[in-house]
């Protein structure tokens, strides 16, 4: 029996996809540099397309690598949306003077166990802090949750952007989002559930890699933070 006094519950489902790997960075930090990505592995995009919902709202960051990734998904036969919003707030963290510096050398200079380029409140020289990124991502998510309440939203973004979204879903704790790996082309699902009295997030899946059963497609992990090992520095 329905309860007429119970407020309606609306669930907005976010399907975050990190862009495809960047091969032309020369081993350097690229941040908001508008650099192309490698979308040549059709098997990976066919696998991603199988788990994404049709009839979704599509949004991407303002950087070309997210647009190229979306096109690669559509090129598998996935229904192309009539429009895809370009959301500048979903761009990667602007890393200022760190952009263009050698990634391995820079990250090796950071404290052991760091989860990101710097502490969340520390801005890069001439650039943003992770908190700056988190705040702009949160603002856009809050707005889209209102504009497209109850819809599926496919958002093609970046490692930092998706970590910020995870931090929001974990009770607005941005530092918690940084402990997750977010691989290239991976799918992260975050559900926003709202009624008149309650608003909560659920995390059905994080860093899902639907192609991973085939060992021939291992090249989808690139650092989205200080994932540097001794072998990488050799």
Strand content: 15-25%
What composes the largest sheet? 6 strands, mixed
Nearest-integer average pLDDT: 91
Overall helicity: 25-40%
Sheet with the most strands: spatial strand order: 3-2-4-1-5-6
What integer value in Å does the Rg equal? Answer: 18 Å
Terminal Cα separation, in Å? 66 Å
Question: Stretches where pLDDT falls below 50 for ≥5 residues?
Answer: 228-234
Count of DSSP strands: 6
* Order of secondary-structure elements: EHEHEHHEHHEEH
Query: Helix tally?
Result: 7
Structural class: alpha/beta
| Shape, per Cα inertia axes | globular
Tell me about this structure:
By secondary structure, the chain is α/β, with parallel strands linked by helices. The chain is 27% helix and 18% strand. The chain contains 7 helices and 6 strands; from the N terminus they run E-H-E-H-E-H-H-E-H-H-E-E-H. It has helices at residues 42-51, 64-74, 103-108, 130-147, 159-169, 174-177, 230-233, and strands spanning 10-18, 57-61, 85-87, 152-157, 187-194, 199-208. Strands 3-2-4-1-5-6 form a 6-stranded mixed beta sheet. A hairpin with a 4-residue loop joins strand 5 and strand 6 (199-208). Helix 4 packs across helix 5. The longest helix is centred in the middle third of the chain and has 18 residues, at 130-147. The model is unreliable at 228-234 (pLDDT under 50).
């Amino acid at each position: 029996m329905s309860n007429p006094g119970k407020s309606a519950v609306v669930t907005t489902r976010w399907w975050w996809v990190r862009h495809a790997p960047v091969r032309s960075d020369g081993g350097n930090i690229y941040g908001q540099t508008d650099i192309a990505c490698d979308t040549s592995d059709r098997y990976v995009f066919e696998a991603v397309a199988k788990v994404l919902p049709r009839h979704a709202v599509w949004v991407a960051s303002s950087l070309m690598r997210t647009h190229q990734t979306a096109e690669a998904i559509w090129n598998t036969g996935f229904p192309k949306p009539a429009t895809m919003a370009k959301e500048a707030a979903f761009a990667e963290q602007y890393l200022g003077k760190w952009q263009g510096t050698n990634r391995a050398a820079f990250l090796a200079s950071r404290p052991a166990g760091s989860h990101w380029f710097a502490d969340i409140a520390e801005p890069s020289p001439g650039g943003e802090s992770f908190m700056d990124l988190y705040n702009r991502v949160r603002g856009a998510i809050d707005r889209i949750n209102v504009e497209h309440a109850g819809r599926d939203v496919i958002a093609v973004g970046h490692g930092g952007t998706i970590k910020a979204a995870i931090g929001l879903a974990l009770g607005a704790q941005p530092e918690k989002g940084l402990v997750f790996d977010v691989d290239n082309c991976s799918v992260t699902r975050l559900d926003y559930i709202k009624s008149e009295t309650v608003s909560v997030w659920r995390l059905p899946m994080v860093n899902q890699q639907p192609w991973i059963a085939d060992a021939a497609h291992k090249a989808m992990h690139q650092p989205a933070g200080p994932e540097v090992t001794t072998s990488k520095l050799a």
